[in-house]
Amino acid sequence: MKQEIKENQIFVYAPYLSYAPKKFRNAGGKWDKNTWIFALEDQEIVDRTCIDVYGVTGREQTAKAKIIARKHISALTESVVFKGFALSVARGRDSGAKTGEGVQLLSGAISSTGSVKNWYSSVTEGTEFIIKEFPVGQNSNEDFEIEYLEEIKPISELAKFSNDEILAEAKKRGLL
Length: 176
Description:
The protein is α+β, with helices and mostly antiparallel strands. It has 2 domains: 2-59; 62-148, no CATH class. The protein has helices at residues 20-26, 43-54, 163-172, and strands at residues 2-6, 9-13, 30-32, 35-39, 62-69, 73-76, 80-82, 85-88, 103-107, 110-114, 119-123, 128-135, 144-148. The longest helix is centred in the N-terminal third of the chain and has 12 residues, at 43-54. It is globular, with a radius of gyration of 18 Å. The relative contact order is 0.18.
């Protein structure tokens, strides 16, 4: 998942989770063409909502990482998502599973199982994924281990923001 600021608006691109639309609507978001759109002045609530739903803001520094499933993980009628990345996406028991955007299956298995009404997206224990733009500073948890595959270089605090975000903030503060 990621956030961008364009045309003085915040655009949030994220994988679908059934409970996310209500949270994003309650935060003032409008759904348009597979993207949540917010007013620029709502940055704080957008960040908090993204953390609540996905565990990240979508504005963090990124690096290439390997994600390893520490156990078998299933999600009832949902995708298996870790830090905003859909690791196993299914639309029903018989749909099969695929990885979401930005996720590559390195080894192991993902699947869809269960009954027609109560289907699961699943990731088998030991399955490995490569994510080229994974948020830096995230911790492994009981479900997934994170192994960063490239050196993480310290960056300026301002490097987190796009030029449009910096200019918008400068205008808001009357500096331009």
